[in-house]
Amino acid sequence: MCDELVQHGASVGETPAAVVKKCKYTIAMLSDPAAALSVVFDKDGALEQICAGKGYIDMSTVDADTSSKISKAITSKGGSFVEAPVSESKKPAEDGQLVILAAGDKDLYDQVDVLGKKSFFLGQVGNGAKMKLVVNMIMGSMLIS
User: Fold this and answer.
1) Is the pTM of this model over 0.90?
2) Which of 21, 54, 117, 132 is catalytic?
3) Catalytic site includes residue 132
């Protein structure tokens, strides 16, 4: 995947910090809270290069507490943060049909609102993660029925 993106003009960052250094906006989409925290807080993590003028959009599948912890760290260094979990899976992502449940910095949200088929701004950080949980519960109950 990266090779194809590089062929279209993208550059590769070897670490999360290197990616943040190169980009105005960094988007993370990770599988769980441990991965999301690692990418931000570990050595060569995103937090090392976050500063004023940098935006961090976390589309990872995490709980509200994890999202709040990441948000506080990013904003304490002057960066902007939006949590933006999605309510769909791999196939809708490939087809550009994701529904995004965003919360956090409204200005940053407005700048990156082109992501996904539809997005909803839900206010303060943590609300996106909570809404994703509600959506997952509804979808799960529909599958069981």
Assistant:
1) no
2) 132
3) yes
